[in-house]
Amino acid sequence: MGTWLIWKMVAKNKGWRRTRNIEVLQKRHEDGTYYPDFWKWIPDNWHIYNGVVRLARESMEVEDREYWSVDALCHVLRFETSIRDRSQNEVKINNNCTSGLARLIMAREPDLEGFFKIRTPPGKEEAVKLDGSGYYDNGEQDE
User: Fold this and answer.
1) Which region, left, alpha or beta, applies to residue 139 given φ > 0 means left and ψ of -120 to 50 means alpha?
2) What is this structure's pTM?
3) φ, ψ of residue 93 in degrees (nearest 5)
4) Structural domain spans, the chain
5) What angle do CA 112, 113, 116 make, to 5 degrees?
6) Helix 98-108 and helix 70-84: axis angle, to 10°?
7) How far is Cα 105 from Cα 96, in angstroms, rounded to an integer?
8) Is 137 helix (H, G, I), strand (E, B) or coil?
9) What is the tally of helices (H) and strands (E) in the chain?
10) Do 124 and 32 contact (CB within 8 A), yes or no?
11) How many Cβ atoms from other residues are within 10 Å of residue 109's Cβ?
12) Dihedral of alpha carbons 75, 40, 20, 105, sign
């Protein structure tokens, strides 16, 4: 069964709709853990989102990875574009936005849910998850 068909089935069951409307995305996904300028950055950088999704899926299929670092994928994407474009149009990825990119990808791409290890940003102990629970409600902190 193809990835697209799996996504379509999961999306139908969960009622997910794909959108790139930033206001809708922010309302749907903002939980206090995104870098403050992430929602300003993503509208001009969907090509980076798509590139990271492509690389993540390739690494799952080819290398049989269960998880990987979004930072590593961004470095691979930078390398690929610098080689392909001979550094004329090198991809510019704000390192502050990579954690938000990982969170958004896992929220929007069901087959990549849990693929990136994420941590609560420093000073965000008061942040809450989308279900309203806190990140430290169980008394344990993320490593």
Assistant:
1) left
2) 0.67
3) -120, 120
4) 29-112
5) 80
6) 100
7) 16
8) coil
9) 6, 0
10) yes
11) 20
12) positive
CB atoms within 10 A of CB 45: 17
Measured CA to CA, the distance from residue 111 to residue 12 in angstroms comes to 14
Residue 1 CA to residue 21 CA, distance in Å, equals: 30
Encode pLDDT of 57-88 as tens digits: 998 888 888 888 999 999 998 888 776 655 45
Query: Which position has the token pair 């954690």?
Result: 99
H-assigned helices in 15-134 = 22-29, 38-41, 46-62, 70-84, 98-108
d(CA 21, CA 24): 5
- Give the pLDDT confidence of 13-47 residue by residue, as tens digits: 444 456 778 888 888 888 888 888 889 888 888 88
Contact 96, 33 (CB under 8 A): no
Which residue type, as a one-letter code, is found at position 72? Answer: A
Gap between the Cα atoms of 69 and 117, Å rounded: 7
Tokens, residue 49: 């989102």
Q: Is the dihedral of CA 84, 87, 89, 94 positive or negative?
A: positive
The SS3 assignment for 78 reads helix
For residue 80 the two structure tokens come to 């690929």
